[in-house]
Amino acid sequence: MSALARLVSDHATVAGSLPASVVTRDGRQAALGVVSALGLPGGREENWRYANLRPLDELRFVPQLTNNAAAIEQARSLLPEPLAGFDRFVFMDGLFAAPLSADTGSARGVSIDTRAPLDAAFGQYSTDARFGALAVAFAPEALSITASANATRDIEILFVAAREGTESASYPAVTIHAGEHARLRIVERHLGAAESATFSNAAIDLRIGPAAQVDHVRVQQLGAGAVHFDTLRAEIGADAGYTLDTVALGARSARTTLHARLAGRGARIGYAHSVALTEAQVNDTYAVIEHAAPGTETTQDYRGIAAGRSSVAFNGHIVMRPGAAGSASRQSLRSLLAGPGAGADVRPQLEIYTDDVKASHGATSGKLDEHMLFYLLSRGIERRVGQSLLKWAFLTGLVARIGIPALRTQIERAFAQRFTGEDAAVAQELV
Amino acid sequence: MLKIENLHVTVGDRKVLNGLTLEVPTGEVHAIMGPNGSGKSTLAYALAGRPGYEATQGRVLYDGQDLLAMPAEERARAGVFLGFQYPVEIPGVNNVYLLKAALNARRKAAGLAEIDAFEFLEYVRGKMKFMQMDESFLSRGVNESFSGGEKKRNEILQMLVLEPRLALLDETDSGLDIDAMKIVAQGINSLRGPDRSIVLVTHYQRLLDHVQPDRVHVLSRGRIVHSGGPELALELERRGYDWVLEASAA
């Protein structure tokens, strides 16, 4: 049976138990229909060439519909240190774990609902509708965060792949709406200690109103057997800002499909993605940023380091629409090969339909920077220490801009654990 | 301290130094001047051991040791310091880490124990105060988002912390306003001493208003073509390089 046929069959099994309040039965069927009509992506599709979709063919992931109290308590040990000032909301295998979470409802002008109806437009992405639609078809719950005008709140969302021994599937769905002048800081983490295979297919939809600011950090630290696909869409209004700092360390196979649209005059996005892989991990990102209004700005930075036989890929696609006069984009995409069997592919793509825009890009794949290395050597630093320092600098350079010091430290510790030998000794000193 | 004999250096397939001979005795400050493309920076890089700068002939003795046989890091640990014309930015490695690691590497080579963390901070703070640098620079990435002047000041700070035996300063004055120039010159002068030599590579005379050299050498087409006392720098400033080059060609 193909992966798609299995998903359709699984859906038929669980459809009766999925809440119509989140997505109506017709809505779920329609979403599944999108996937069925288009088929699951394959390696022959240009934008999926580097993703590893094989686990979907090899394994049957069973959607989870209930959590029990014992499992929730068991998951407590997997949770990272809380971040001061952040309200935490925990989902286990895609299901809300109230005992581990702050109160839902409304506080400081921001309302939180874990069973909110999904917007009809949710998951309808121009970039690639399929995995987003799959989340709509299967989502047992949906987290909705709505900030009214001028509201400010810090929110941490944890998705924990906790179930041991079964090949479980989870379908987190999140909607974030920031009203005019609202300021949200969102930390979204995907965690899992389990070695067993899990499949998580997350979809997140952000609407950022005029002059609002959303600072969003995503950290993916799933277990070694995990398969993690996510689809993110952001619509950014006039004079609004969206920073997206993502860090990926875990999962056997991970893929991000991102589509951000700078819809209002003066909208800005700063997207930074850091990836550190080892063994045979695969991490692939396809990010489209669309400038659809005048005076919009993008900065996009990618740092991927591949050790062992792992493989990193990033396709950064910037589109300047005809109405985007006076807009600017800057891309800096770099990958580093740190293993004899490692692979990397970084691709900046520019599509420009208007004059009067500035678009710069740089992409490199390869070795450590010789100028930096010589600088360190000229200060008496041993060559192997210098190389370790530069690997560390390469990886943590983007993390330094995350404005939550405690989270930054947690991420750096996770990076340090990824290093081995001399690299590890240097990393431990720098954390 | 430094004895360069008939040095030929190739960068890629380009011969840049063509039989350069120079001696810098201990305790002296020498200025290397010359027109663009004469080989000034190549000399500094070759002495510091930059990969790609290949010595094809000649030898360089540093305190009697064969400098060219030593890898770059060993030269640094033996007390050779290069102040870069264009210091690189290394985001992710902070200044304080680099300074401490560099100082400890130098101490280890001298048979000394690693410096205590508290003692180190006190020591660095003192040097920063002298260079009129804010302490926040310590926690920033090496040269990260520093202005041109801040980068040069940071080079001199590193030099003061490491207290090298031989300092090679490559166009340290370029890109500095007059106030920054004075601070940098003050840093260089503070390091002058009977056990130390300084080689200033410079295009213009203005740094030499503040750091008076013992000797001035003119480099052209990869060789020293003229040498003199500090007054030579003033003459070069007044008359340019052509008269020296013409005289040496004759």
Describe this structure in words.
The complex is a heterodimer of chains A (431) and B (250). Chain A has 431 residues and is an alpha/beta fold. Chain A folds into two domains: 3-264, no CATH class; 369-431, no CATH class. Chain A has helices at 3-14, 25-38, 54-58, 69-75, 130-138, 370-377, 383-396, 405-418, 421-430; strands spanning 62-63, 87-92, 95-96, 105-107, 110-113, 143-147, 152-160, 168-170, 173-178, 183-191, 198-208, 213-221, 227-236, 241-248, 253-262, 268-277, 282-291, 297-306, 311-320, 328-337, 343-352, 358-366. In chain A, strands 1, 4, 5, 6, 8, 9, 11, 13, 15, 17, 19 and 21 form a twelve-stranded mixed beta sheet that branches. A ten-stranded mixed beta sheet of chain A has the order 3-2-7-10-12-14-16-18-20-22, covered by helices on one side. In chain A, strand 2 (87-92) and strand 3 (95-96) form a beta hairpin. In chain A, 54% of the residues are buried. The model of chain A has no long low-confidence stretch (mean pLDDT 91). Chain B has 250 residues and is α/β, with parallel strands linked by helices. Chain B has a single domain, classed as 3-Layer(aba) Sandwich (Rossmann fold). In chain B, 38% of the residues lie in helices and 28% in strands. In chain B, the strands form three sheets. In chain B, strands 6-9-10-3-11-12 form a six-stranded mixed beta sheet, sandwiched between helices. The chains are: A alpha/beta (431), B alpha/beta (250).
